[in-house]
Structures are given as structure tokens and as C-alpha cells.
Amino acid sequence: ILGHVRRIAPAFQQMLRQAGQHPLVREARGVGLIGGLEMREPADAARLQAAAQAEGLFVRAVGGDTVALCPPLTISPAELDELFARLQ
Q1: 3, 47, 65, 74: which sits with the fewest CB atoms below 10 Å from its CB?
Q2: Please, are residues 4 and 76 in contact by the beta-carbon 8 Å criterion?
Q3: For the whole prediction, is pTM greater than 0.85?
Q4: Hey, CA dihedral for 61, 85, 29, 31, is it positive or negative?
Q5: Ramachandran assignment for 24, one of left (phi > 0), alpha (psi -120 to 50 degrees), beta (any other)
Q6: Intra-chain end-to-end CA distance of the chain, in Å
Q7: pLDDT, tens digit, for every residue of 5-58?
Q8: What is the dihedral of CA 50, 75, 73, 10, to 10 degrees?
Q9: Is 23 helix (H, G, I), strand (E, B) or coil?
């Protein structure tokens, strides 16, 4: 599993940084397969969490203004693409 995480984590981090370019996002940060999108307004984090869950994604708003992303350690490249497509 660790070998898989080492291979897929760079793609996850790149997609996370791309998601961080959205105008409602203040900062994208993460390490490995853990990421967070800090929103400009706390209400945006709650809205993003609700919208993501409506798309079938499990994310959580933490700290009031950040949405945490933590996909399964076994996520495939295709599933990673789908995760960020749904997040958009």
C-alpha cells in the first residue's frame, strides 16, 4: 500500500493545487493523500462540503474554513480523476 501511495500522491497533490486555483479557495495544502482547501469564507467551506456530498464525495469541513480531503490509500488514478472532477 505504501508503494502505491508514493506513486499516486504526487498526482493527488497536483490536482489539489489545481483545485486551489478556484476563486473561492484561499489556499490548498497537503501531504501524501491528505489535503485541505482553505476557503476564503467559512460559509464557503460548509457549502463545498454539502455540494461534494451531493456528488457522492466524503469530505469534511474542519476548523471552520477548511475542507479536508482524504481519499482511500488504494485509490486508483481513474478514481482520483473522478474525485476531482466531482469536486469541481
Answers
A1: 3
A2: no
A3: yes
A4: positive
A5: alpha
A6: 27
A7: 999 999 999 999 999 999 999 999 999 999 999 999 989 999 999 999 999 999
A8: -100
A9: coil
